[in-house]
Structures are given as structure tokens and as C-alpha cells.
């Protein structure tokens, strides 16, 4: 009987160890994916500031939608706006970021102060920007980007 208890304890310890190891691995993978998405979002802001449509074009899904204070448009229009500078995203100062990943979908919320040139006038505006990404193959593609005007005291719930 003692031998059976000893074997049972060994099996239980091994099973629990494997369980915790797999949970730790899954959490690390999630954290790694979250970090990749956060970096991709940061890169996107820089590419927008640099008017680098060559980097943005493959990031934006062909069916992506962009919601701004003055309207909603699709990928081609957003790229044209960035390229021509009719809206120049000079600088996005990111104050807070939250990410949630569910399957192949990632949602990023950034609380930002946007410094932009809009039709020749500088505008400094507080926004919470919602970005929706989808994993397509090995790459993340942006499906939606929405600017929501908020007060500078707004906090993103994590």
C-alpha cells in the first residue's frame, strides 16, 4: 500500500509540475504577443509621423476602416491622407496602453496626446485610440483604428 501511495504522489507531483509549466509557457507566449502588438502600435505611430506609407500599406488590411473626428474612410483614403500630409500625425505621445488578445484578434487602447497638422493648422488633442488587429499567417494586420476624443484625465481600464 505504501508503494501505491508513493507512486500516486510521484504521479501527482509530475502532473502538477507539467500543468504549471504549460500555464507558465502559455502566459509567457501571451505576454510576448502583447509586447509584439505594443511595439507594432508604437512603430505605426512613428510611420504615420514619418509619412511612411510603404511601411503602413502592408500593415493595414485591405478592408480596414479609420474613424476620425471629421469622418470615416478606408485604407486607400487613409494612406493618401498620410502621404499628402492633409493630416500629418507629427507626434503621438502615448501615455497609457492596454492590450487584450483573444485568439487571432488583438485590441490595443492607447491614451495619447496627438500633435497633428490638419489642413495647415496645428492641433493638439487628447484621444483614446482603439486599434483592432488580426493575426493573418505570421503577421498582424490592422482592421480598424478609431480616435475617441477624451479628457486628459481619462484612464484606460486594464
From TrEMBL:
Provenance organism: Haliscomenobacter hydrossis (strain ATCC 27775 / DSM 1100 / LMG 10767 / O)
Signal peptide bounds: 1-28
InterPro entries (alphabetical): DUF4440 (IPR027843), NTF2-like_dom_sf (IPR032710)
Residues annotated as domain DUF4440: 37-142
The keyword Nucleotide-binding appears for this protein: no
Keyword annotations: Signal
Name this protein carries in UniProt: DUF4440 domain-containing protein
Amino acid at each position: 500500500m505504501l508503494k501505491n501511495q508513493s507512486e500516486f504522489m510521484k504521479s501527482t507531483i509530475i502532473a502538477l509540475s507539467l500543468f504549471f509549466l504549460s500555464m507558465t509557457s502559455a502566459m509567457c507566449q501571451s505576454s510576448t504577443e502583447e509586447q509584439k502588438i505594443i511595439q507594432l502600435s508604437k512603430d505605426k505611430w512613428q510611420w504615420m509621423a514619418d509619412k511612411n506609407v510603404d511601411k503602413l500599406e502592408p500593415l493595414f488590411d485591405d478592408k480596414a476602416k479609420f474613424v476620425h473626428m471629421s469622418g470615416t474612410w478606408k485604407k486607400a483614403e487613409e494612406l493618401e491622407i498620410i502621404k499628402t500630409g492633409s493630416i500629418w500625425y507629427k507626434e503621438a505621445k502615448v501615455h497609457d496602453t492596454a492590450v487584450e488578445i483573444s485568439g487571432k484578434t488583438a485590441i490595443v487602447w492607447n491614451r495619447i496626446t496627438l500633435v497633428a497638422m490638419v489642413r495647415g493648422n496645428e492641433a493638439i488633442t487628447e484621444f483614446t485610440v482603439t486599434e483592432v488587429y488580426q493575426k493573418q499567417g505570421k503577421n498582424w494586420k490592422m482592421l480598424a483604428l478609431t480616435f475617441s476624443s477624451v479628457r486628459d484625465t481619462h484612464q484606460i481600464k486594464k
